[in-house]
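Treating backbone geometry as a discrete language has practical consequences that deserve illustration. Part of our work consisted of pairing the sequence of a single chain with a tokenised description of its backbone. We regard such an encoding as a compact summary of how the chain folds. The amino acid sequence and the backbone structure tokens for this protein are reproduced below.
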Amino acid sequence: MSDSHPAPDAATPFALRDCALITLSTGFRAQNLREFREGLTQVPVDSIAHHFWGRLLQPLFDEPEYSNDFASWAYRGLHDKPLAERLSMILPTDFDCEEDLRQELLEVVEERLDESELIPWARADQWFYFLRSQLISFDSGMELEDPRDLAACLPNLSTGSIYYHFIDARNRTAERCDDFSAWLMSCGAPFEELARRLGDFDPYFSSLREIRRTIARIAQDFFEELA
């Protein structure tokens, strides 16, 4: 490290955590589009988040054709490709909270119901089951004392740590940003630009491994420019 770098403001060391998801039933299920709409109105809001983000930590064996569980079911269960495509275009990162995301889903489904002469049904073995996640986090035993350690650390983090600090954090922080950006902002002006670059990256269409590679490259490029 070069001594010419300005020292960061005093900040709490960054404690790296890991996590796992436990999938739970909500008790709601749907066989047709009308039941699906009713389920959307009643399930806990964390069920909405689970069906957009949960597949990151619990990937399917095959590459999903659509970007969220709702769209995948519309295509595979209801065989309604127009609905699947509309649901797949909904990006959770465009919304300030999951309730707004729920309302967008409902508007798309209700619009499709108004268009349809017959209500689409799924076979008995293709019902949609509304699920939710319980996140279990635990201490990884690692800490970052200096923001400059971030570039070397990121490529080696587990996918659970990436999920916890870069995805789940958006529901925990007041700024709805990732933990890395929040920490960098607390470390002073020299690192605000890196926080901004990390915040500008939309992780939604990436796997956790792709997210890890991207944010590691962002951090590495920043510190190379700073040197």
Summary: The beta strands are 14-30, 128-144. The first strand starts at residue 14 and ends at 30.
